[in-house]
């Protein structure tokens, strides 16, 4: 019995450590927003720059509420999230940029007509409830609600982080691979089966709507990995017995 107990205990402890490892935290639904006060219907882990996007799309009034979270390139740097109505890159995007100003977090709107022109000003769509916050882990977060085109199914989104602010203006970001790849589509609606005639909107918090799953897929892969580890542990335990 003693020879069985020790290997079994070590095996179970190893499985517990594996399940509690940082990889397990990849499930987007478990992430906490720095200073977050709102609840959102969807969450996606963006593929670059250690960033996430929580959002709720309300098709009834064509509004999108978002919380974008990322770590700036430096403690006094900036983070940005944008929609590009006409293209897929940064040029032409309508951006929300957050940074520290005299020790307090602020978020401002920028119409980025080109990579060399970052001008603070009104965006091409309505924006409200602008707010910025920072967490103890160094991450910043942008909160906002904005108007999107009626019946929109997806948007071109861009996100970025930068090193600092000079004279109240964001400094240029790096052009590393992760920075250049920080763009993609944001799906607002969930496709339905071929037997249905229209897509299902990503919901606002309401019991009468279906919740669209916009997780990046890492959460499901982690759950599959966890199940596999438990099965492996159980088989090994039976072999030891």
From TrEMBL:
Chain ranges of the DOMON domain: 49-162
InterPro entries assigned to the protein according to its UniProt record, in alphabetical order: AIR12_DOMON, DOMON_domain
One GO cellular component, as annotated: membrane
Record's keyword terms, sorted: Electron transport, Membrane, Signal, Transport
Pfam assignment, any one: DUF568
PROSITE patterns: DOMON
Location of this chain's protein in the cell: Membrane
Residues covered by region (Disordered): 192-220
First and last residue of the signal peptide: 1-25
Protein name: Auxin-induced in root cultures protein 12
Species per Swiss-Prot/TrEMBL record: Herrania umbratica
Lineage of the species this protein comes from: Eukaryota, Viridiplantae, Streptophyta, Embryophyta, Tracheophyta
